[in-house]
Amino acid sequence: MTTSLRPRRRAPWLGPCLLFGLSALQAQAAGTVPPLVPLPAHYQADPGAGFVLGDAARAGGSDDAGRRAAARFVDLLRQNGGPAVAVADSTGAAQIRFRLDPSATRPAEGYRLKVSDTGIDISAGDDVGLFYGAVTAAQLLTGDTPGQAAAATIDDAPRFPWRGFMLDSARHFQSMEEIKKLLDAMAQHKLNTFHWHLTDDQGWRMEIKRYPELTAVGSCRVPLGDAGRDPASGEPRRYCGYYTQEQIRDVIAYAADRHIQVIPEIDVPGHATAAIAAYPELGVTDQPLVIDNQWGVFQNLFNTEESTFQFLENVLEEVIQMFPARYVHVGGDEAVKDQWIASARVQQRMRELGAKDEMEMQSHIIKRLETFLERHDRRLIGWDEILEGGLPPEATVMSWRGTEGGLKAASEGHDVVMTPVTHMYMDYLQTDSPDEPPGRPTTITLQKAYEFEPVPDELAADKRAHILGLQANMFNEHTRNDRNLEHNLFPRLAAVAETGWSPRAQRDFAGFLQRLPRQLQRYQAMGIAYARTPFQVDLRDKGEHRTGQVRVDLVNPLGYPVHYTLDGSAVDAGSPRYVQPLQLEVPVRIQAAAFFQGRPLAAPRTFTLDAGSLLARDDTQLGLCPGDPKLLLRLEDDGPADGERAIFNVNIFSPCWLWSDVDLTGIGGIAVRAGRIPYNFQLANDEPSRTFAPARTAHGELEVLADCKGTPLVSLPLPASPDADGFVLLEAPIPASAARADLCIRFTGDTRPDLWTLDWVKLTPRD
Ligand code: ACM
């Protein structure tokens, strides 16, 4: 077939000579780099009109590896929303041509891609390089002008060999389809390591044939509250799920097809409740355990008997038969040692084994497993706690409590994967929007995730190669469904991928934001429920209820331009652009959206401000009370079992909300809508941080304090239970005052196993 050539759109201010020979960063700054995520190491614009994908275009390979890559390219292009392209038998009849070039000296995983008028040529030294070339080609053809690619030469290879994503399938379980969808998305971002967190306190999710109870018992729990009751019969309703060995092999093969290694995690010696519930002889105490429906840090540890070590080795033996990856993750995190300290038998074993303290005891187990894995030609990796008590040099450390553990480990000569909770935890929410799903409301914004640098400046130059790369972790206590999971992962996983792949000097958040909107369209084509919140507009208002005057900020969390209307009519790119706070008078209806290249990035939001809204706040608009210890969570109700649930921002250490700087003049009363949710947290050593103000009546009180101290303005006894819908409306008069005050609104008493939470608060004017 013939390819019809059409001139490509080009930035009008740049003459052709300026376009050529730019590095990826320069090209990005000049706006000429196509919307590739991650950004390639070297992008050079070439002379020529570029390539246009015709209706009869074909992809082909000049060898087996090339043909495999051509087939992958066809899938990738379709996933990205591109047209169907057939696979040709050879490169002769193809326009997208893949060729193995073993003679080329390229860095690992690298490839060269050349777009010319006649097509796209990709060459690499191996399958993986050709695959990444296919990923880039598919993105080029789903760029700003779909089906067209500008003439260019790309020489590309990753910065780090470990570009990871960890998925917790223990707290909540994902279908095979969802796992494969995530693997597809990983491949589209050139992520190459899937760390699968398969065992924890709340579930054992991997079939081990020698120990069938691990899944027969260990894969089920009864969730707390309504979610754990059949709505029709009232009988317990279990939450169950595990992957058979056949399914696990299927996942591994699917991942391998996309050049992703799958690293299993078996968490030892803590996070072990599900295993101990299945086989009580593995535990330290004689207490029978059930699989808990609580979150947090549990006390339960594996015991230190030889038979338990053998159990772990037997499990690992089946694990390494399933998982071909070089690494096996053995956890090691958050193993509070109280049970070992309290157990005479464990103390005796420590003496027998020569462990001088519990850290050394843990280290003994890790070393034993490490020796076992080495014997089977595998390498041990674990969370940074495995450094405590000593670690064999071959072990690799995953640094999650910050980067310090990774810095120490790399300085000592261990390989390290950086995955600090401060930047790489995808259960931390990404904006302050009320539309965020449940999770941890400390935000890790897209920018924060993007700006994480895995190689600490303090690390000596000769130790830097020990930093294998970085990884995003998705722990799933609060992420019950695929929609929320995908919301949390995307687009932040794109930011993590770029840090893992692109040279440090090329990374540039502003450039990333220019390339991102096209990536969102690819997500849409893949059916990925990426977060809309970073692309919406949030409204912050500060109003005076006595005058009806309100100052309004309209903010897009990523800084994309915001346009708005003030009469509630539809907003478009021609509507006024927001540049500074608006002084408005209520009532007013604002519609606002963020725009990129004339198109809204997400559905517009409409805000109605009236006299009532100036006197109302919901939980997401309130702060935390001063002085309290804090563990802020965004939690959902326990029911209904399926479907939408109410969500609350609550400090589980102290249920108290702060409304700052309230003008109480003319206020006669307060109304609080309160919800009640299960309190299901094990806090281990943090337990003493919980500080509930003492209750004065049987079920505690709703209290409102001016400036968060002194005699409460309001102290209203709480009912024994909420109404049938899980909420209760609490109303009380407020004494006359002409003051401004910071209002602290709290629930007193220790109401476990439930927790009262604030849904909204409204002040009512005095008649
Ligand atoms: C972890 O977050 N406990 C690794």
TrEMBL record:
<dbReference type="Pfam" id="PF02838">
    <property type="entry name" value="Glyco_hydro_20b"/>
</dbReference>
<dbReference type="Pfam" id="PF00728">
    <property type="entry name" value="Glyco_hydro_20"/>
</dbReference>
<feature type="signal peptide">
    <location>
        <begin position="1"/>
        <end position="29"/>
    </location>
</feature>
<dbReference type="InterPro" id="IPR017853">
    <property type="entry name" value="GH"/>
</dbReference>
<comment type="similarity">
    <text>Belongs to the glycosyl hydrolase 20 family.</text>
</comment>
<feature type="domain" description="Beta-hexosaminidase bacterial type N-terminal">
    <location>
        <begin position="34"/>
        <end position="157"/>
    </location>
</feature>
<keyword id="KW-0378">Hydrolase</keyword>
<feature type="domain" description="Glycoside hydrolase family 20 catalytic">
    <location>
        <begin position="160"/>
        <end position="503"/>
    </location>
</feature>
<dbReference type="InterPro" id="IPR029018">
    <property type="entry name" value="Hex-like_dom2"/>
</dbReference>
<dbReference type="InterPro" id="IPR059177">
    <property type="entry name" value="GH29D-like_dom"/>
</dbReference>
<keyword id="KW-0732">Signal</keyword>
<dbReference type="InterPro" id="IPR015883">
    <property type="entry name" value="Glyco_hydro_20_cat"/>
</dbReference>
<dbReference type="Pfam" id="PF13290">
    <property type="entry name" value="CHB_HEX_C_1"/>
</dbReference>
<protein>
    <recommendedName>
        <fullName>beta-N-acetylhexosaminidase</fullName>
        <ecNumber>3.2.1.52</ecNumber>
    </recommendedName>
</protein>
<dbReference type="InterPro" id="IPR015882">
    <property type="entry name" value="HEX_bac_N"/>
</dbReference>
<keyword id="KW-0326">Glycosidase</keyword>
<feature type="domain" description="GH29D-like beta-sandwich">
    <location>
        <begin position="549"/>
        <end position="598"/>
    </location>
</feature>
<dbReference type="InterPro" id="IPR025705">
    <property type="entry name" value="Beta_hexosaminidase_sua/sub"/>
</dbReference>
